[in-house]
Amino acid sequence: MKVLVVGSGGREHALCWSFAKSPLCSKLFCAPGNPGIAEVAECLPIKADQIDDLVNAAKDFDIDFVMIGPEVPLTMGLADKLRAAGVPCFGPSQAAAALEGSKGFMKDLCKRAGIPTAAYERFTDADKAKAYVQTQGAPIVIKADGLAAGKGVTIAQTIEEANAAIDDAMVGKAFGEAGAELVIEEFMTGEEASFFALTDGETAVPFTTAQDHKAAYDGDKGPNTGGMGAYSPAANVDEAMSARIMDEIITPTVKAMKDAGTPFSGMLFAGLMITAEGPKLIEYNARFGDPETQAMLPRLKTDLLALLFAVSKGVMNGFVMNWYDEACLCVVMAAKGYPAAYEKGSLIRGLEEASKIEGGVVFHAGTARNEAGDIVASGGRVLGVTGWAPTIKEAQAKAYATVAKIDWPEGFCRSDIGWRAIARG
Length: 425
What we know:
Shape: globular
Number of helices: 14
CATH topology of the largest domain: D-amino Acid Aminotransferase, Chain A, domain 1
Helix content: 25-40%
Radius of gyration: 21 Å
Largest sheet: 9 strands, antiparallel
Mean pLDDT: 95
Number of strands: 22
Strand content: 25-35%
Distance between the termini: 44 Å
Structural class: alpha+beta
Low-confidence stretches: none
CATH superfamily of the largest domain: ATP-grasp fold, B domain
Oligomer: single chain
């Protein structure tokens, strides 16, 4: 098959890295890709939100299968346009991608289907939102309804902090139109986990689990980011918990989406809080996670391309996934200043040395080449340094040994990715 991956981040590098190993893949393209992806795929200069250009490229290059990586093209209807053009693809329709595109849509669906989640209200008026916060008290969670690249959530510890978050989104337009409506919900206590399930709109099967680290700094301190690292599998999701998540959250969601006339086909990514009462849904994403994908795919024995193509064709029944027993851990190296303002163009050295470490790989996220052909930082989250080993502690050591080979003074990373799993022993 000729395969096209849409996107340019670490998730897409991990997907391309996996597809390139498949005997089914005769030619691999990525749009727009990055310098790391260019080592395994031909990169096309088309951005992920240039929907019509992507469809035309799929036809021009006679593409057999398109893997849509990021959420933005999904919420813009890329999957619908590809299918209308006769091109098989992996990813939900525009209507189904509203599960991620609108937190209000997702919460309302949970209420209708009886899916356990935090109590909430929706607001389009800042004064009413503040009045609700006053009655509920703090801590409380303020969320932009729309897509905000992982940064539209504030866990407010005080009413003043909550009011500032409301003003930031609704008055200051910090998230543009995404923050014109807010979802305000109760603060849940527990430990987070990322749960992934494949579904063709009818059948849903568990993929695997991971745990993301959203806060910028060690000890889960600092502002929320798009993710500073992840490990897989999540230590707080055993087989019994996985079965509960499927029964109480994933399966009812797939049924509710089908009943609403918007069946969800693709990767259903549930961000969960594992509470004393059981699993509760924080949010849905309509695609593979980033950086979770970088920590999950090295563990997968099964041919990923064959698996995702089967999902796209609705022939999932009987498909078995096999996984290595090893743990895998990804450390995100980000530009200093991220998730706020950061400099672009700083030189990254040592990548060749880092790539020689066995049991590890460096996934590129926000990188580019300068005029001299050197790798430079071009985004906030820049590299996903990944290691795998028999235990999570060894995988952590492998990842950080690889980080140590990378010479990039303008970058930073957390030094404690996987700390909860290691503390469990």
